[in-house]
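User: Run a structure prediction on this.
Assistant: Running it now.
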Amino acid sequence: MNCILKYLLVQVIILHITKDVFMEIELAKQYGFCFGVKRAIKIAEETQKSATYGPLIHNRLEIDRLKNDFNVDLKENIDSFKRGDKAIIRTHGIEKSDLIHLQSEGVQLIDATCPFVTKPQQIVEEMSEQGYDIVIFGDKDHPEIKGVKSYSKKDAYVVLTPDELRNINLKEKIALVSQTTRKISNFLKVANYLIENHKEVRVFNTICNATFENQSAASELSKKADVMVIIGGKNSSNTKQLLTICKDDCQDSYHIESVEELKKEWFNNKRLCGITAGASTPDWIIKEIFNEISKIS
């Protein structure tokens, strides 16, 4: 976090919205770039004239910055990589078969997979080798989950609710992992259902610490805010989770990706505006949006 954002975090900016109502702006105690994203950005910046296989992170503005400033391209087609090319593996990881293909083609791999994502990959591979049925709590269409599932030596089942397990014929030995950015309360519902209905269940809590901290801080702030602004990529799973959490206590919660999406009417007659940001949201975007809100009068 840069000095300007540290300053913003501890300062309260009072804005005159109407003659009678003043609005404060407060940043969540924990927000924005997580360890895995910071690590991936650093790797990409140091690996110029390269390309990521799939979006490095779920934030199009930061991806554009990497391309413009550091010559880091984005390729969605695995066959577009040729021998000798430098391919950066995105933070969410890729499917094991794709990894093997790139290696066999002589592509130089630079692994920016978040270590918190590598962990469930390893668990799934090891537990499936030991004969456990694999249950993954998460979004089956998310690239992280596609990658994690691919490490299973047998069928793996991806669910979001206990109800989805009722029609699955699972064996008595089950291993459960989670997408790194999901809500712990929902993960526990799936875990409890499995424990109540099966003899042996190995539960691996693979939700990352940064997710815990960001979600907890967002929840705390939303309980006292009149309006919440959640900043992050439109396809960012952890940012969507923050929106859901904030809406539990603050109905006037809005998910935006860029400063252009702000609407003045959101702040009419509001006394406290809370701001949080997803794990793939860079400081420069947060600062830009914070400053724009501070100008609204």
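The first strand starts at residue 13 and ends at 16.
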